[in-house]
Design brief:
Layout lengths: L4 H7 L6 E4 L3 E5 L7 E7 L14 H17 L7 E5 L14 E5 L9
Antiparallel strand pairs: 1-2, 2-3, 3-5, 4-5
């Protein structure tokens, strides 16, 4: 999508602090961190949110989670603990309409989360 900021990050049109990139996804530091460590993992392909995933996307979904774990390890939060979160639609807290996985760590996470 031409107006999607995450598509622009994935294509290199917008600069971001990249933490990982491959043919399927990109991970980068969140510009509005909600924890000492806050990264986003996004698919290169534009999907609005989890509601658009199908069984054909199981490989992509698994890859996003595996990259999240890799990013958490590289960010130094894997051993102490971290949270992975997909926000879907407004009541789920989604504000950017491109599927993205939050990787948060570096502090105690509360429950319930919101």
């Amino acid at each position: 999508m031409s107006d999607c900021p995450f598509c622009k990050i994935a294509s290199g049109q917008i600069q971001a602090k990249l933490l990982h990139h491959d043919e399927q996804c990109v991970a980068f530091a969140d510009i509005n961190p909600q924890a000492p460590f806050h990264a986003l993992v996004i698919p290169r392909r534009h999907l609005v949110n989890l509601n658009e995933l199908s069984t054909a996307d199981e490989g992509l979904a698994g890859h996003l989670l595996a990259v999240a774990a890799q990013v958490a390890r590289a960010g130094g939060v894997a051993e102490s603990g971290w949270r992975a979160s997909f926000n879907t639609n407004r009541e789920g807290g989604q504000v950017i309409w491109h599927l993205h996985l939050h990787v948060l760590g570096g502090r105690q996470m509360g429950w319930p989360p919101g």
